[in-house]
Write a structure and sequence with these properties.
11 helices; alpha+beta; 4-stranded mixed β-sheet; disordered N terminus; 25% strand
Length: 338
């Protein structure tokens, strides 16, 4: 209730809307599309997608609590070098330093030349892209709250009165002082319930003897995206909720004028029992998506996936069986972990 009482006209903050615009440029989807273009040999399209993903990750990683995948900078460098876009790569390194923040064994930044060597694929190997989803996004519930209808007010313009009621909800005493209340309207509004984080926070992947291993990076945080989206849209949702309540009140008052008190009572009862918030949401979306990349010699592998908890301990181990790797080719693997 208090969250909605505080949602006055000042709640329409420009920063909320700008955050929403920023995250709509989805870094992970851009990166994934770049890998698909790369796999298909469409290098120009791949470079554009990688470049846009780099810009998006640079802008949103801190906001969303995601990790920039180290492979993005290498992919961008590899494809850009093949296309001869060295000048553009230099500019991208300046504009998006976190994307190219590779370090050597001593923790020192590597040179551009060394980075370009690191970016190349190992001769004869194939590239395995592993996507692992875990947890669930927060779900919507509903809360109910009341606001007063005053005697002597026409309420003929629901839009105007919706704004007036919204503006006064932060100070109910000022809203009702010196005015006689005719009726209390009860309405329902959606609320996003931030549940506890899932048990699984990351993954470690082992391809067996000679196959190497990798730790995943959290490349998508859908839980945080849901919260930012909801907060940006909440002022509009709240306004429409009040507008709906006023519309039902005007309908019941009209019914009373036309059919008497019983008709008004019936309209009030109907409005109350049909009042509910729009709590529709995608229930099966994961809380986060994690990415790992492995460069492996040709062959068939059973990948051992260790599910890591908040303290880094292994919760359990699962197997992704019979992953075939071909030389010079991409292999994409996806798994949902509940």
């Amino acid at each position: 209730m208090s969250k909605y009482v505080d949602a006055t006209l000042k709640g329409l903050r420009d920063e909320d809307k700008s955050d929403l615009e920023i995250i709509r440029n989805n870094a992970f989807l851009l990166y994934y599309s770049g890998m698909l273009y790369d796999w298909d040999g469409e290098l120009n399209d791949a470079f554009i997608a990688y470049r846009n993903a780099a810009t998006a990750y640079q802008q949103t990683a801190a906001m969303l609590g995601t990790e920039i995948p180290p492979s993005l900078g290498r992919d961008l460098t590899r494809v850009g070098a093949r296309l001869g876009f060295r000048g553009e790569l230099t500019e991208l390194r300046k504009m998006n330093p976190d994307i190219f923040a590779a370090v050597d064994g001593d923790g020192l930044p590597v040179t551009r030349e060394d980075y370009e060597k690191m970016a190349g694929w190992q001769q004869g190997n194939g590239e395995v892209v592993i996507l692992l989803e875990a947890g669930f996004v927060p779900q919507k519930t509903q809360i109910r709250f009341d606001f007063p209808i005053f005697e002597g007010e026409a309420y003929d313009d629901p839009n105007y009165w919706s704004w007036q009621i919204w503006a006064g909800m932060g100070n109910t005493q000022a809203l009702v002082k010196g005015r006689k209340i005719e009726y209390w309207v009860s309405v329902a509004a959606p609320e996003l319930q931030d549940g506890q984080q899932g048990l699984v926070t990351g993954f470690r992947i082992n391809a067996g003897v000679g196959g190497g291993h990798a730790v995943t990076h959290r490349v998508e945080n859908l839980s945080r995206q849901a919260r930012i989206t909801f907060e940006a849209e909440k002022p509009s949702i709240f306004f429409k909720t009040i507008l709906r309540g006023l519309t039902k009140y005007l309908a019941s008052r009209g019914a009373g004028e036309a059919g008497g008190d019983w008709a008004k009572l019936a309209a009030n009862i109907f409005g109350a029992v049909t009042e509910s918030a729009d709590t529709r949401s995608w229930l099966t979306l994961p809380e986060h998506v994690n990415l790992a990349r492995l460069s492996l010699p040709p062959g068939v592998y059973d990948l051992q996936v260790e599910l890591l908890g908040h303290d880094g301990r292994v919760l359990q181990t699962e197997t992704i069986a019979a992953v075939e790797v071909k030389p010079g080719d991409w292999t994409f693997v996806s798994r949902r972990v509940f």
